[in-house]
Design brief:
Blueprint lengths: L7 E6 L2 H14 L4 E5 L3 E6 L2 E7 L19 E4 L3 H13 L3 E8 L7 E6 L5 E6 L8
Parallel strand pairs: 1-4, 5-8
Antiparallel strand pairs: 2-3, 3-4, 6-7, 7-8
Length: 138
């Protein structure tokens, strides 16, 4: 068996009220334009061959920020189609008030790796990258 990509990712957020407007802007920008579910505790969009959503944290965990080194998610990276998409994303992220960890830069992880790293209002690390050609599969 060989999978056909990632179907969806759901992120649990401790401050749903702050994260909802952020993801309502970010996900359509990334091509996830079809809102499947929007309730007082969930927001889920599909498009660009994937789905991404946020879910309100259980009451016991609200107010606890994201910790990148804790068990669970380290970061989520979206793959851009073009090198120039990273620069466009950076400008967009500044407009929506994302916390930019690093602006567009070349990284050592694959030939031509180019990315921007940022955080949502909960501090969840997100990245958008572009790798030209076949990257590590070449």
């Amino acid at each position: 068996m060989e999978i056909n990509g990632t179907a969806h990712v759901m992120l649990t957020v401790s401050n749903f009220e702050a994260c909802l407007p952020f993801y309502e802007k970010l996900l359509p920008f990334l091509g996830l334009k079809f809102v499947v579910r929007k309730t007082d505790s969930q927001f889920y969009c599909i498009g660009a061959r994937t789905g991404v959503g946020i879910i309100r944290a259980d009451a016991a965990y609200r107010g606890q920020g994201f910790a990148q080194g804790r068990s669970g998610l380290h970061h989520l990276c979206f793959r851009a189609r073009e090198h120039s998409d990273i620069d466009a994303a950076y400008e967009f992220l500044k407009q929506i008030g994302a916390n930019i960890i690093h602006p567009p830069e070349v990284g050592p992880w694959a030939p031509g790796y180019y990315s921007v790293l940022f955080e949502d209002p909960d501090g969840i690390r997100l990245e958008i990258n572009h790798i030209p050609g076949k990257g590590l599969l070449a």
